[in-house]
């Protein structure tokens, strides 16, 4: 293997600070450090070294850390250089590394290598991908938890328990003559029930983690010219939607991203609801309604100076936010279809502060703001749901081999989240927990 | 033997459990076969416990029998205590076991081999392997200078490769007590560069049954109606005897703790890894310090042999300490030790060097079977011997050695797949937990699963073939009838069978699968069931019981089939696969999986590594859709 398999990158981000951390990983790490710092420091100790370029010129006095694989972040030989943070120092050291034959890492390459070497499970790797893609504070919080192994620990803990249940059930099947405890079958079924309830509680999360990861959609719906687009623009603070006095201007959906208390929200402004005058507008209205169906929150907008229209009224439900716009022109009514309204004016800003606060509150309620370990992907939900069904089957089974069969399948389902548990691991538990061999 | 060369289609070296099945199977397949073993009189010797079968092992024996092997028939002829294990559990995990009179077993094996046409048995020791210019095996050479040319050879030398016996501080080279080790062959394997590693196993002291105080011990009888292991056995005819049950005492444990240094293992004189499911008594006392008793089964080794095998106190303590240990056990206070227990350390070959037909990958025409491949147990040895015998016969007749079972077809498939893909880290023993298709791989349907394949491979005799076909026919007729014959809920409840009164008619199979319904009620509702022979009814009941699970397993199996069909070119350079870590490369290189499915089963292979391999195969132009 060559130096080219060895990568480096700035781990401390692009901004200039007092200290810059440069990370190396790959088979050529040791060679590169020797060339740069003269010799290899003892593993996992911060050692102060003079760094030199190939021509002998001093580049920096830096802390050098050497992490021989596989006990490193990536599982490969790796090293860290804590440099003085100046641009020229960093550039000089990078140049020297390139001259030694190393190359700059692709985005996410360190993580990918760590994953390839079995240093993190799939959920943690997903967390890191999410962290890189995070747009808001709550998304970042959630991704960090997952990257730190929050889900891996939770699911790993369940997997371990399930493996133990299966191992004990298998021991009862395999070594019936070895004077093992007589209640192993019953305990396996009981344990399956307990685990099932815990996973069910985790699943009953109203999809908070998934919603935060994907972002929320709030749809604005209302009659043509009720002022939906102006409202969207006022909330976003820029001209996202074309606003005009002509009814039916917004024929397709205009969307804008908003950061509400750290939660990413897509505001979706839709075609005005009315009897369409042409086919294009009719299609726009159909899309508006579909979008509203998918949205986590629907805001119906009425104009204070007009009678509430029937099309929009259809959307007024207990969970809808009912807004009356143009309250600077006319005092709006306080209730529509029995739901209290919020008076706003997109033109002079009245009530917008309150509206923002309300939306933020809804967003936080729907996503949980990234606190706690929540599942973040549909594939997590699918695997856990399958495991729950199989655990229920294990509980209800009338024969030990059927309990074992269901437990094994449940373990396989969980294994899809965190990694496979093989028969050898099960046997390890059997022989650790019981004295087998008559 | 004299100077002129002998020529055979297949030469089998070693007359243990692997060698006997191998020789018999090769000869059944029509190969002119030679069985070469040290001593004719120890052919079929049980080196350790006098029992054949059990949970998992019993499944293997029935599969050997389904392919017309000899182990089950010999065990039935020698059986003196028979038990169906796990009788309170479902049919899939019931394991038949027979304790055998050791002399009768040996005699039965030898008689079956002598009666086998096409098989020659010669006493002698194999010393070397002769290869041709292409590296394929052409002859076996013996200690006395004989050269035996052959189309294929099977080496089944068990614990004899550089075997060394330890009794306390004493140690000496041996294959097992009373037999010399095989040094020449070990050197030959080393010369070929085959990966060797060391394992160990042990055996308890043998006691003189006439000095045991049976009166104070609990007796454990066998089953009232002993079920034979072989399909060809009508019934067990030997007188049946009971085993005795006793246990170690706190005093036993104190003696062992005080003398651990005298144990070859704890004294540090043995490095080989032993089997976890057959721990020595010193292991049990050390590892489970909180237990103050360990059960011991006293198993008679024969009807007119006073030797008793105390199952549970395998040991490598010194002879003097063994005396004290035995004397501390209830019922054994005056027992005389006939032969001390010992531990044996031996070389085995990493079975990942073999193809799924048990042929050495780098030496065509050379097959290995039995304990030499890192397994333990007669049944595991016999099963490998059988498969190697069939494959070697095919190879010798210039065909391809492709008699292979998949994991979903047979325990034999699980065994061979585990060995050749995972290798071993301790002596490998079969357990039903290893079989992911456990519910369909039952001891009761081994013939239905395998005999037809055996007929195609030519290893099943006419008598068994005919009986099998008649039975298979009867079972499928009964299954079809049970699937179509049905009754209304009202009619069923008239017979005391509670079902939902939803008007939906239930088939016999559905009724049989209802939990807690007494068999006589089902028979009352469908009287034709009463006329079915026991084994046929067993099939109906098992199929009904497991039906929903079997359907799911079948779906799982089909999902995996795609990966099984993605073959990996035998010449693939795993080092050239992008994105594999050094560890994954090493695992793939050692096992050289033949399909993507096999690669995925290798222990410790990460999903990422598998994905990298899949991508590479696709890029290589290999399609698997
Ligand atoms: C001390 C001891 C304890 C054991 N304990 C257990 C246990 O507790 N549980 C369990 O399940 N299994 C146990 N076993 C294992 C079981 O006995 C073996 O796994 C099984 O017998 C292996 O069968 P085999 O055919 O591979 O080898 P073996 O039965 O060992 O047969 C090898 C044969 O090869 C012959 N041979 C060797 N070298 C040559 C040569 N160069 N030329 C010609 N012939 C040769 C020998 O004479 C012998 O007949 C034990 C074995 C031993 C020795």
What does this structure look like?
The complex is a heterodimer of chains A (438) and B (625). Chain A contains 15 helices and 14 strands. In chain A, strand 3 and strand 4 form a beta hairpin. In chain A, helix 4 runs antiparallel to helix 5, helix 6 runs antiparallel to helix 14 and helix 7 runs antiparallel to helix 13. With 625 residues, chain B is α+β, with helices and mostly antiparallel strands. Chain B is 35% helix and 18% strand. In chain B, the strands form 5 sheets. In chain B, strands 1, 2, 6, 7, 8, 9 and 20 form a 7-stranded mixed β-sheet that branches. Chain B has a 6-stranded antiparallel β-sheet with strand order 14-15-16-17-13-18. In chain B, strands 11-10-19-12 form a 4-stranded antiparallel β-sheet. Chains A and B meet through helix 6, helix 14 and helix 15 of A and strand 16, helix 16 and helix 19 of B. Flavin-adenine dinucleotide binds next to helix 1, strand 2, strand 12 and helix 9 of chain B.
């Amino acid at each position: 293997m060559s130096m080219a398999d060895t990568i480096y990158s700035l781990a401390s981000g692009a901004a200039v600070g007092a200290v810059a951390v440069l990370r190396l990983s790959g088979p050529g790490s040791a060679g590169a450090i020797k060339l740069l710092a003269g010799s290899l420091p003892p593993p996992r100790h911060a050692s102060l070294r003079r760094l030199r370029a190939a021509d002998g010129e001093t580049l920096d006095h830096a802390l050098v850390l050497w992490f021989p694989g596989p006990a490193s972040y990536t599982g490969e030989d790796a090293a860290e250089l804590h440099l003085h943070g100046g641009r020229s120092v960093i550039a000089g050291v990078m140049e020297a590394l390139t001259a030694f034959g190393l190359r700059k890492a692709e985005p996410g390459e360190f993580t990918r290598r760590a994953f390839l070497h079995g240093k993190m499970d799939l959920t943690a790797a997903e967390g890191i991908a999410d962290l890189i893609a995070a747009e808001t504070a709550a998304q970042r919080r959630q991704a960090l938890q997952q990257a730190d192994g929050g889900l891996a620990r939770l699911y790993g803990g369940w997997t371990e328990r399930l493996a133990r249940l299966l191992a004990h059930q298998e021991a009862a099947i395999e070594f019936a003559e070895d004077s093992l405890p007589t209640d192993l079958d019953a305990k396996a079924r009981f344990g399956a029930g307990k685990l099932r309830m815990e996973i069910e509680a985790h699943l009953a999360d109203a999809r908070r983690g998934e919603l935060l990861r994907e972002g929320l959609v709030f749809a604005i719906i209302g009659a043509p010219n009720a002022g939906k687009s102006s409202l969207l623009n006022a909330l976003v603070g820029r001209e996202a939607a074309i606003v005009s006095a002509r009814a039916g201007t917004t024929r397709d959906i205009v969307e804008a991203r908003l950061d509400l208390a750290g939660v990413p929200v897509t505001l979706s402004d839709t075609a005005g609801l009315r009897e369409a005058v042409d086919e294009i507008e009719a299609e726009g209205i159909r899309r508006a309604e579909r979008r509203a169906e998918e949205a986590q929150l629907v805001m119906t907008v009425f104009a204070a100076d007009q009678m509430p229209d029937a099309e929009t009224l259809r959307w007024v439900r207990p969970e809808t936010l009912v807004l009356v716009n143009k309250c600077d022109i006319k005092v709006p009514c306080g209730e529509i279809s029995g739901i209290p309204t919020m008076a706003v004016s997109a033109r002079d800003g009245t009530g917008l502060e309150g509206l923002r606060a309300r939306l933020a509150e809804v967003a936080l309620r729907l996503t949980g703001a990234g606190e706690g370990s929540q599942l973040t992907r549909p594939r997590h939900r699918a695997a856990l749901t399958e495991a729950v069904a199989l655990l229920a089957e294990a509980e209800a089974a009338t024969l030990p081999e059927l309990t074992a069969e269901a437990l094994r399948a449940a373990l396989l389902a969980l294994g899809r989240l965190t990694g496979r548990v093989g028969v050898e691991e099960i046997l390890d538990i059997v022989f650790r927990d019981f004295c087998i061999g008559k | 033997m004299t100077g002129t060369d002998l020529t055979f289609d297949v030469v089998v070296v070693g007359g243990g459990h692997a060698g006997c099945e191998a020789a018999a199977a090769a000869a059944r397949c029509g190969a002119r076969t030679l069985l070469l073993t040290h001593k004719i009189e120890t052919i079929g010797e049980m080196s350790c416990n006098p029992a054949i079968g059990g949970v998992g092992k019993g499944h293997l024996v029935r599969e050997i029998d389904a392919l017309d092997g000899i182990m089950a028939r010999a065990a039935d002829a020698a059986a003196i205590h028979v038990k169906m294990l796990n009788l309170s559990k479902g049919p899939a995990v019931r394991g038949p076991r027979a304790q055998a009179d050791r002399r009768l077993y040996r005699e039965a094996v030898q008689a079956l081999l002598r009666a086998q046409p096409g098989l020659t048995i010669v006493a002698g020791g194999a010393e070397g392997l002769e290869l041709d210019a292409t590296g394929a095996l052409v002859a076996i050479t013996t200690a006395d200078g004989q050269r035996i040319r052959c189309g294929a050879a099977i080496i089944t030398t068990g614990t004899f490769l550089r075997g060394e016996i330890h009794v306390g501080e004493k140690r000496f080279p041996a294959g097992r007590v009373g037999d010399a080790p095989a040094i020449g062959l070990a050197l030959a394997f080393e010369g070929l560069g085959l990966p060797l590693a060391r394992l160990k196993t042990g055996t308890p002291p043998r006691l003189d049954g006439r000095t045991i105080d049976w009166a104070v011990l609990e007796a454990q009888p066998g089953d009232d109606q002993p079920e034979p292991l072989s399909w060809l056995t009508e019934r067990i005819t030997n007188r049946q005897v009971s085993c005795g049950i006793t246990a170690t005492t706190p005093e036993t444990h104190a003696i062992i703790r005080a003398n651990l240094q005298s144990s070859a293992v704890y004294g540090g004189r043995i490095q080989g890894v032993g089997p976890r499911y057959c721990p020595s008594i010193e292991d049990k006392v050390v590892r489970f310090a909180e237990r103050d008793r360990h059960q011991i089964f006293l198993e008679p080794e024969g009807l007119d042999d006073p030797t008793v095998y105390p199952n549970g106190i395998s040991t490598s303590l010194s002879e003097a300490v063994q005396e004290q240990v035995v004397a501390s056990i209830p019922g054994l206070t005056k027992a005389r030790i006939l032969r001390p227990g010992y531990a044996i350390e031996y070389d085995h070959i990493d079975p990942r060097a073999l193809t799924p037909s048990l042929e050495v990958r780098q030496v065509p025409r050379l097959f290995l079977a039995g304990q030499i491949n890192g397994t333990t147990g007669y049944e595991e040895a016999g099963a490998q011997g059988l498969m190697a015998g069939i494959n070697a016969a095919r190879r010798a007749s210039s065909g391809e050695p492709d008699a292979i079972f998949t994991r979903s077809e047979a325990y034999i498939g699980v065994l061979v797949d585990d060995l050749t893909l995972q290798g071993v880290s301790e002596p490998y023993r079969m357990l039903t937990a290893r079989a992911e298709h456990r519910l369909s791989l039952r001891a009761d349907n081994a013939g239905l699963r395998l005999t037809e394949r055996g007929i195609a491979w030519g290893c099943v005799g006419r008598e068994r073939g005919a009986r099998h076909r008649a039975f298979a026919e009867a079972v499928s007729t009964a299954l079809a009838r049970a699937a179509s014959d049905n009754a209304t809920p009202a009619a069923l409840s008239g017979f005391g069978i509670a079902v939902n009164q939803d008007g939906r008619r239930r088939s016999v199979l559905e009724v049989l699968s209802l939990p807690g319904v007494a068999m006589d009620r089902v028979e009352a509702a469908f009287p034709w069931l009463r006329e079915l022979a026991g084994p046929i009814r067993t099939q109906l009941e098992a199929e009904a019981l497991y039906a929903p699970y079997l359907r799911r397993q079948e779906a799982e199996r089909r999902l995996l089939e795609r990966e099984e069909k993605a073959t990996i070119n035998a010449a693939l350079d795993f080092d050239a696969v992008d994105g594999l870590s050094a560890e994954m490369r090493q695992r793939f290189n050692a096992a050289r999986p033949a399909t993507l499915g096999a690669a995925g089963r290798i222990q410790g292979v990460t999903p990422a590594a598998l994905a990298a391999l899949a991508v590479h195969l696709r890029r290589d132009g290999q399609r698997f859709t």
